[in-house]
Amino acid sequence: MAQDIRRVAHCSHWGAFDLLVAGGRIVGVEPMAFDPAPSDIIGSVPEWADPRLRIAQPMVRAGWLRNRERSDGAGRGREPFVPVGWDEALDLVAGQVLRVRDRFGPASIFAGSYGWTSAGRFHHAATGLKRLLGLVGGYTGHVNTYSIAAGPVILRHIFGSEDACNGGASTLDTVAEHAEQVIVFGALSPRTAQTEAGGIARHTLEGHLKRLAERGARIVLVSPARDDLPDWVLAEWLPIRPNTDTALMLALAQEIVAGGRNDLEFLARCCSGSEAFLAYLSGESDGVPKDADWAAPITGIAADQIRRLASSLPARRTMLTVSWALQRADHGEQPFWAATGLAAVIGQIGLPGGGVGFGYGSLGGVGAPQARSQAPAMSAGVNPTGSFIPVARITDLLSRPGEAFDYNGRSYTYPDTRMVYWAGGNPFHHHQDLNRLRRAWQRPEAVVVQEPFWTATARLADIVLPATTSIERNDLSGNRRSDHIIAMKKAIEPVGGARDDFAIFADLAQRLGVADAFTEGRDEMGWIRHLYEASREDAAARFAHAMPAFEEFWVQGWAALPVRPDFTYLAEFRQDPAAHRLATDSGLIVLHSPRIAGMAHADCPPHPSWVEPAEWLGDAGGAGRFHLVSRQPVDKLHSQLDYSSRSQALKQDGREIASIHPDDATRLGIAAGDTIRLWNARGACLAGVRVTDGVRPGVVILPTGAWYTPADDRDGALDLAGNPNVLTLDKGTSALGQGCSAHTCMVSIERVMAPPPLVAAPPAIARDAA
Ligand SMILES: Nc1nc2c(c(=O)[nH]1)N[C@H]1C(S)=C(S)[C@@H](COP(=O)(O)OP(=O)(O)OC[C@H]3O[C@@H](n4cnc5c(=O)[nH]c(N)nc54)[C@H](O)[C@@H]3O)O[C@H]1N2
Ligand SMILES: Nc1nc2c(c(=O)[nH]1)N[C@H]1C(S)=C(S)[C@@H](COP(=O)(O)OP(=O)(O)OC[C@H]3O[C@@H](n4cnc5c(=O)[nH]c(N)nc54)[C@H](O)[C@@H]3O)O[C@H]1N2
Ligand SMILES: [Mo]
């Protein structure tokens, strides 16, 4: 009966919606009216409540419960779990925090705990964990993200700020209105733009692409996959070999320079180091001109095509867009720097619709008018140890205590990790070379995982603390790339014995003697109100923007933030570089960096450079093998909701589907619907097959997100579900950025005649243990 249905405002990383609740259950999901292009993934949210997937109560690994920190870490994932009560579980966790801190020092607790967790900014798991441990001596944390690491680190050297890859470059409304030509390196895809960390109110990418199409702008897609633009965008497709964009960008720049069409005035007035960059392009410095003939065999794009594209660039108002994906690859600093070098040679940086921007479409908020006021966020406080790793160096941290590593020009030492506490992330989804991680994961003495679901990471823990999902508690969303704050109201009661992230941390704080400092005396609604009020006061004080009072916001379900539309990055700088100095060493855009030269890293030269990736189609081992592109899944967020019916509907026999070119399929005797094995020296997985000429020959696309499901518990076991991270390379992008190199990976492929069945592990484990 309609009158029994309650509407509950809520938000996820993929959009804002009303949950329709009746009889304590969610019976429907409706997008908020202001979203022009809602994501289908909102329809999967009710499946969070499926008790078969949830961790019913706190669990402790049997061997660990017996022998505590002296137990054998090899038992992780092998031994059964023993259900325990919350008090016992939290006593054990607090005891380990104190033991490791007092015996080995706080830096021996790893709480970097990377992951997207829920969109809620109050119950934000990783922030709560850091806030708690910061109050009792500290921990080892992380810098940068899996999404972007090489990119922001190099951009700080180039522009003095990482804004241009965080959504602070020109807004897409101005690009859509002024660009005559857009060169897309990577993607501009609603697939990835569905999501935004901390929530998204309005999905606007499609609207901007439609406006470009309507204005007749020319669009060129440089990507191994044709579907990196929607099929209704008429684009020219240059199916480039993965990881070779830097060579293409350098050649485009060199052809423009050789034709005498480079903007000398812009280079001289707004850039430093252009002499060294141009000398490298021409070959003056190393004897190799980086022209179209040089780039053709590297990139797989014909020299004529490169020359034609080059000649069109300075002729029109041209925007270069570079997806984040390009820097999640070996030497991922270079495509961002080379794109900047190319844009500088074209000379349109700072003009409406011209220049370069990074990460458009990678998340839905990149290129949207940025919120100018303070987004709601819990404070993580300070970490007294200052100890950190570049986020993707987790396996090195666990396996190489005491060894040195470089990051952005300085040398650091990996601490000796005795305890790992992960809350709100799934490293056995997200990290590269999972077999290597699994070996290293045996080393710490205690592993705590705080998670709603039986993920692979939860199954590899010693102590599992079941957290509620956002629909079981109150919270609020927010992000500086979103133009709204959305109320995230509790829709249903907690599933099983799960507890809210904040409540778990508050109880641990009590045991550790820091309850007052942790909670500041506020409860859930007290905090939500407090975080909202801070944003409201800031919007009023700095932008004279009126937001509704808290009560009104909570009833309405949303509040709009002040935003900055029609923004052109570096417009003021371009007009007067002296008055608007960049925070770089030269105050200008840096095309050759004496500072990076001083670091003397062979894998990160001091100007944009082509450096061969560790593995690629052009190297000796490339023949007959495939470059694996493990891109983001269309139907879920990473590993979240992998079990949902929407996600399962896009699988084949429960496995993720790989896409290959018809020529490759014929060569290997593979047809659509077959099961294939992908393998290399690091690991192997099974996958279904799609055959499409929308993928470049020699490339295989296998989306991320499948729950890691090893066939047995031996080292290097075959993954049955199609998780590409059993194959990917675990290597820093360079000694400078140390980002993840997920998109640098070569694999072999063969057809599997009698594929083993996929066993649905997580609920089974929950049943065994109960
Ligand atoms: N090969 C390859 N690997 C990649 C990438 C790639 O392109 N290729 N991309 C990388 C990128 S960019 C990223 S960002 C990472 C993503 O990696 P992650 O962020 O680790 O992936 P998620 O699946 O979002 O993991 C979030 C976890 O939080 C849990 N969770 C959800 N809500 C809550 C909550 O309220 N409380 C708690 N405690 N937990 C909650 C979810 O169940 C889930 O297990 O993957 C990276 N890995
Ligand atoms: N639906 C959904 N959306 C998501 C996510 C999700 O899990 N699901 N995850 C979100 C997160 S955390 C992030 S960080 C972003 C990531 O956003 P992106 O990094 O932009 O996303 P990817 O899917 O990794 O890559 C985009 C495209 O780049 C192309 N590509 C890969 N390597 C190369 C290369 O060497 N050269 C060129 N020219 N192209 C290449 C691939 O064809 C791929 O489709 O996505 C976000 N959006
Ligand atoms: Mo990401």
UniProtKB/TrEMBL annotation:
Task: Tell me the organism.
Answer: Stella humosa
The chain positions of domain Molybdopterin oxidoreductase read 54-510
Keyword annotations for this protein, in alphabetical order, are: Metal-binding, Molybdenum, Oxidoreductase, Periplasm
Source organism phylogeny: Bacteria, Pseudomonadati, Pseudomonadota, Alphaproteobacteria, Rhodospirillales
Q: Which PANTHER family match?
A: TRIMETHYLAMINE-N-OXIDE REDUCTASE, TRIMETHYLAMINE-N-OXIDE REDUCTASE 2
One Pfam family name is Molydop_binding
Q: Name one GO cellular component term.
A: outer membrane-bounded periplasmic space
Q: Name one GO biological process term.
A: anaerobic respiration
In Swiss-Prot or TrEMBL terms, this protein is called Biotin/methionine sulfoxide reductase
